[in-house]
Amino acid sequence: MSRLVLLILSVLPLAVNAASFDCKRAWNRVERAICADPHLSKMDDQLGRLYSSFTQDINLKQQQRIWILSRNQCAISTDTKQCIESSYLSRISQLQALAGDTQQHQASGAVSIPVSVVIDYSLRTGNWYPLPEKDMKAAAADTALAKLSETGNFSIVANESGMKRTAGRMNFNISLVGPAEIAKLTIELRVPGQPSFISTASISVKGLDYQGIYKAFEHIGNTSAAQMLAKFDAYVMRKPEYRRDELIFSENDDKLRDIYQLAQTYKSDHKYQEARLFFEKVTEADKTGVSKWKALAEDELRYGLRMFEAKQSIISMGRYSKEPLSISREITNAKNLLRQVLADNIDDVKRISETQKMLDDLDVSSQAFDVAMQSRVENAKVVIERNLRAMVQRKMNMYFMTSKSVPDGVCEKDDFMSIRDVEVIKQLDDKSFIVKDTISNQEYMVKCSEDKIDVSLYG
Predict the structure, then answer these.
(1) Is 328 contained in some domain?
(2) Are residues 208 and 292 in the same domain?
(3) Which residue range forms the structural domain that includes residue 412?
């Protein structure tokens, strides 16, 4: 997947116009959303001025292109505006940090972006191989690396002896527990002169087939990368509530309580990465003796936070009654989150039983959804055929009545406009079209002639 990122970058134009771009040339959904919203346009202007203030070296340009790719992914977000705004806030903060005096920036111990890192991989299987080694690496580690690379925070360098003293190191460790059928990915980032950053995600793959296991590995890749980015961003941006001198508590629980409650606020706002970040800070506090806030935070990380997020995914399915692909995505997300809960609570019989029941219910729902979607696919095929036959018959009657010759391509692109939820993707020739049912997202090959209408699944 990292190769795909590099390939995309290689075909992008070198010059990046990050300042307020020409809205007349806005070509994608994200740019059109920015142009249509005064607040987003203002943020784009601010970022453009910041970016223009720098000497345009190749590293900065590459970093900006990666950020634009990441921003444009907001097109598939359920809340496009919020996603775009968060993307701009993050990038503006990065550029503002870069705009400071370099010597002062280094003297303060701040991280210089992008961080050059050497990549290492390790695998501990315990003699259990749910997937071939190359597939485990691709699904978990390469997925995580691709997500980390999108931000422009990291620059990958060759593992050469001359770089080892100056570059950071990022290790991707995949560890497997065969008897419990649990897979775990740990990412450790070490930057010279900075603290280590560690993120981890575990998932149960019990009962899954090859494809399900592969997707589960992808999930922990994305999850651990998102956690790493949240930690790194909080430290680099020096968020007040994340300052290191506030993380060591020795006498009372008041500060622990405040950080714990902040994490709960993020959780209630569905900002799960931020919530996890501050729950972890409570658990890492250097406090002697027993603290109820530390115990509560540890339980949130093991169980409460993931379970809450899974339930929210299940609830959100009701909002997507006309968006089957979104429903499918939420089902998959909820399943993966519940499998993470299974992995983190292997010794708690009650929680295992509750979580497994939810998984079983989701499996039933998923099967029912698949049956409904298959029925939709078949019904759409019949609808397309029936409507086109009626249109062709009307045209044939008209040609007969007017003594006109029947053209080779009796069907036209505009004929599909009257068929509900169907759009033309491509016209291959006078007789052939590729169309899509926008509900199921299924594509069909349509061949249209005066004596036959043939509709078949495509792709």
Answers:
(1) no
(2) no
(3) 375-458
Q: Are residues 136 and 224 in the same domain?
A: yes
Task: Name, in order, each residue with C-beta under 8 angstroms of 139's C-beta and a sequence gap of 6 or more.
Answer: 131, 214, 215, 217, 218, 221
The amino acid occupying position 79 is D
Q: Which of 319, 336, 361 is the last residue of a domain?
A: 319
- CA-to-CA distance for 126 and 129, rounded, in angstroms? 8
3-state secondary structure the chain: CHHHHHHHHHHCCCCCCCCCCCHHHCCCHHHHHHHHCHHHHHHHHHHHHHHHCCCCCHHHHHHHHHHHHHHHHHHHCCCHHHHHHHHHHHHHHHHHHHHCCHHHHHHCCCCCCCEEEEEEEEEECCCCCCCCHHHHHHHHHHHHHHHHHHCCCEEEECCCCCCCCCCEEEEEEEEEECCCCEEEEEEEEECCCCCCEEEEEEEECCCCCHHHHHHHHHHHHHHHHHHHHHHHHHHHCCCHHHCHHHCCCCCCCHHHHHHHHHHHHHHHCCCHHHHHHHHHHHHHCCCCCCCHHHHHHHHHHHHHHHHHHHHHHHHHHHHHCCCHHHHHHHHHHHHHHHHHHHHHCCCCHHHHHHHHHHHHHHHHHHHHHHHHHHHHHHHHHHHHHHHHHHHHHHHHHHHHHHCCCCCCCCCCHHHHHHCCCEEEEEECCCCEEEEEECCCCEEEEEEECCCCEEEEEEC
Strand order in the sheet with 453-458: 422-427, 432-437, 442-448, 453-458
**Tokens 């080779």, residue?**
408
Separation in Å, CA 448 to CA 409, 455, 456: 7, 9, 12
Place of tokens 């729902």: 365
In a domain, residue 417? The reply is: yes
Q: What are the tens digits of pLDDT across the range 181-190? A: 999 999 999 9
Q: What confidence tens digit (pLDDT) does each residue in 44-89 have?
A: 888 888 887 775 555 677 678 778 888 888 888 888 888 888 888 8
In a domain, 229, yes or no: yes
> Do 122 and 232 have their domain in common?
yes
Residue type, 145: L
**Both tokens of residue 218?**
């992808």
Co-location of 38 and 68 in the same domain: yes
pLDDT band at residue 239 under the 50/70/90 scheme: low
Examine the domain organization and report whether 83 and 161 are in the same domain.
Answer: no
